[in-house]
């Protein structure tokens, strides 16, 4: 077996590998920039909280029609939106900050979701919802992921400038425009959208990995916002490809493989990135004349 | 001259406790007013009220012919995220918000205006500098450049010269005077009484209650300054609720 075969064969030969790769790549393109904004807004853990929050919706969809994509996706999206909206409202109208209200609502949501799954399904079903099966993506799921990615990318492009302003100087945005709050909610909706897009493939919990790990790694390399988004997408795509390859040859679970490759990229970036640990340490303390 | 902002028996505060109490008066169009007073006297609170960020506990604020969105406001503690990957021109370009809106493109003419604004605050050549490398003074210059681009009829500055060196203060004061010459209404919270005497024709002396409001030389009379200094900063947790029937009641030092 030559090298080309080694790297291409699994995807050429097996439809399920092919579809898994396409799905994961589309998700990477869509989730990467969203992850970058989450990171820059110091909301890196919000993605995780939202991933838990979409569980009862997905579970309700699962109760109604089994492991079908559309009901679970719609249910998950609705549940995530409700939690994001409630958390936002609490922080807006009371003294409680959004991190606290979000924690409260996602925990309620999570408990509700686990209870719903336990009403009908077995533990195997719960595992499926939590950790997904990228190798079982069918054409319907791919269309769904594609649609979600399109909406997400267009949405992000539309709110890019107000979101940029809201991150950089929220007081200023409040003084010139009423857009701050709606933009924040739209952004949270995009987060939820990407998570429900990802949970079919990776499950509710690991979907966050493809969103946050590439974003976190990209910050060790570049300074500009656009550069970070592009690099995060690149890291996501690379993780998807090598993750699936590893999963194929070693016969291990595909979702965790993808996320672990992304995790590996993060650790390597942490040490060897241009703005990482080693480079900033060994850089000679020299300076320019002016 | 007509008033651009009129305060009618205005009370602003937090948790029902007044920070600005029964303030009557007006900022004339094109006036240059300093707000002076001890810490906790309600100066910043008043500016927040004027921007609409804080709703009055009593009384009214009238904006004549302008919307609150047309007021340029430079807060005392800017909530700017210095770690955000933005450069100086990104930050200053936010000033185009009103003219270009949410989605409008920044055009060629804007590029020229941006260059002029940076030139005016002495930051030419800083366009591509990341904001986390700016000094406090440079950041304040950039924020003044943003106010320039906002092209606002009313400009509110909350302690704009705190922890800024003399050279920068002189440059920024020149900018404030330039705005005054352009008939913009400028209201600035300041602590430097000497500077106020030198630069600001109008002064409002505040110690939660208004002490004096008018020409600077009269307002900053030693007697008034002494009166302002006697203000008690602490809230009285057991102060009785305000009786709205009696408009100008007497506030005892202790309830």
CATH class of the largest domain in chain B: Alpha Beta
Q: What is the number of beta strands of chain B?
A: 9
Taken from the alpha-carbon principal axes, the silhouette of chain B is globular
Number of helices of chain B: 9
Mean pLDDT score of chain A, rounded?
88
What separation lies between the terminal Cα atoms of chain A? 58 Å
Structural class of chain B: alpha/beta
Order of helices and strands of chain B: EEEHEEHHHHEHEHEEHH
Tell me what portion of residues of chain B adopts beta-strand conformation: 15-25%
- Give the biggest sheet of chain B: 6 strands, mixed
CATH C-level label of chain A: Mainly Alpha
CATH architecture of the largest domain in chain B: 3-Layer(aba) Sandwich
Give the DSSP E fraction of chain A (strand runs of 2 or more residues): under 5%
CATH homology-level superfamily of the largest domain in chain B: P-loop containing nucleotide triphosphate hydrolases
Radius of gyration of chain A: 20 Å
The oligomeric status of these chains comes to heterodimer
Provide the number of structural domains of chain A. Answer: 1
| Main sheet: strand order of chain B | 5-6-7-3-8-9
Structural class estimated from helices and strands of chain A:
mainly alpha
Question: Can you give keywords for this protein?
Answer:
heterodimer; A: 290 residues; mainly alpha; ABC transporter involved in vitamin B12 uptake, BtuC; 13 helices; B: 255 residues; alpha/beta; Rossmann fold; 2 domains; six-stranded mixed sheet; three-stranded antiparallel sheet; 32% helix
Mind explaining what this structure looks like?
- The complex is a heterodimer of chains A (290) and B (255).
- Chain A is mostly helical.
- Chain A has a single domain, classed as ABC transporter involved in vitamin B12 uptake, BtuC (Orthogonal Bundle).
- Chain A has 13 helices and no strands.
- The longest helix of chain A is centred in the C-terminal third of the chain and has 39 residues, at 180-218.
- Chain A is globular.
- In chain A, 48% of the residues are buried.
- The model of chain A has no long low-confidence stretch (mean pLDDT 88).
- Chain B is an alpha/beta fold and 255 residues long.
- Chain B has 2 domains: 1-66 and 154-255, Rossmann fold (3-Layer(aba) Sandwich); 78-152, no CATH class.
- Helix content of chain B is 32%, strand content 24%.
- Chain B contains 9 helices and 9 strands.
- In chain B, the strands form 2 sheets. Chain B has a 6-stranded mixed beta sheet with strand order 5-6-7-3-8-9, sandwiched between helices.
- In chain B, helix 4 packs across helix 5.
- The model of chain B is unreliable at 245-250 (pLDDT under 50).
- At the A-B interface, helix 8 and helix 9 of A face strand 5 of B.
């Amino acid at each position: 077996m030559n090298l080309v075969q080694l790297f291409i064969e699994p995807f050429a030969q097996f439809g399920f590998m092919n579809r898994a790769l396409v799905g994961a790549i589309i998700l990477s393109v869509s989730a990467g920039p969203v992850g970058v904004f989450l990171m820059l807004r110091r909301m890196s853990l919000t993605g995780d909280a939202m991933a838990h929050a979409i569980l009862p919706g997905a579970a309700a969809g699962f109760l109604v029609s089994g492991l079908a994509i559309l009901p679970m996706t719609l249910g998950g999206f609705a549940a995530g939106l409700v939690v994001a909206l409630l958390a936002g409202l609490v922080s807006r109208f009371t003294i409680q900050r959004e991190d606290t209200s979000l924690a409260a609502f996602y925990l309620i949501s999570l408990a509700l979701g686990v209870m719903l799954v336990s009403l009908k399904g077995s533990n195997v079903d719960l595992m499926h919802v939590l950790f997904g099966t990228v190798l079982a993506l069918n054409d319907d799921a791919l269309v769904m992921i594609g649609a979600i990615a399109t909406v997400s990318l267009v949405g992000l492009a539309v709110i890019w400038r107000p979101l940029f302003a809201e991150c950089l100087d929220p007081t200023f945005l409040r003084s010139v425009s009423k857009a701050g709050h709606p933009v924040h909610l739209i952004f949270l909706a995009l987060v939820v959208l990407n998570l429900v897009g990802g949970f079919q493939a990776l499950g509710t919990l690991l979907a966050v990995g493809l969103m946050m790990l590439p974003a976190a790694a990209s910050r060790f390399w570049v300074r500009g916002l656009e550069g970070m988004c592009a690099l995060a997408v690149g890291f996501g795509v690379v993780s998807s490809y090598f993750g699936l390859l590893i999963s194929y040859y070693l016969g291990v679970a595909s979702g965790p493989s993808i996320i672990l490759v992304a995790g590996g990229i993060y650790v390597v970036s942490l040490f060897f990135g241009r703005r990482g640990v080693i480079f900033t340490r060994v850089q000679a303390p020299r300076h320019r004349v002016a | 001259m007509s008033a651009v902002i009129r305060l009618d028996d205005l009370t602003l505060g937090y948790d029902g406790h007044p920070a600005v109490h029964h303030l009557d008066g007006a900022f004339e169009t094109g006036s240059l007013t300093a707000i002076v007073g001890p810490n906790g006297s309600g100066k910043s609170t008043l500016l927040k009220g004027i921007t609409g960020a804080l709703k009055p506990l009593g009384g009214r604020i009238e904006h004549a012919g302008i919307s609150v969105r047309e007021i340029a406001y430079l807060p005392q503690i800017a909530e700017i995220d210095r770690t955000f990957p933005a450069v100086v021109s990104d930050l200053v370009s936010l000033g185009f918000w009103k003219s270009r809106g949410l989605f409008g493109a920044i055009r060629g003419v804007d590029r020229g205006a941006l260059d002029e604004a940076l030139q005016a605050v002495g930051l030419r050549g800083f366009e591509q500098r990341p904001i986390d490398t700016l000094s406090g003074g440079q950041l304040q210059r950039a924020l003044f450049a943003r106010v320039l681009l906002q092209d606002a009829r009313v400009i509110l500055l909350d302690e704009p010269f705190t922890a800024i060196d003399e050279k920068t203060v002189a440059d920024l004061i020149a900018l404030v005077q330039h705005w005054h010459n352009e008939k913009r209404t400028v209201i600035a919270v300041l602590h430097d009484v000497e500077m106020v005497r030198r630069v600001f024709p109008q002064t409002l002396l505040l110690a939660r209650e208004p002490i004096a409001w008018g020409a600077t030389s009269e307002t900053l009379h030693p007697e008034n300054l002494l009166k302002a200094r006697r203000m008690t900063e602490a809230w009285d947790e057991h102060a009785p609720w305000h009786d709205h029937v009696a408009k100008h009641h007497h506030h005892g030092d202790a309830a």
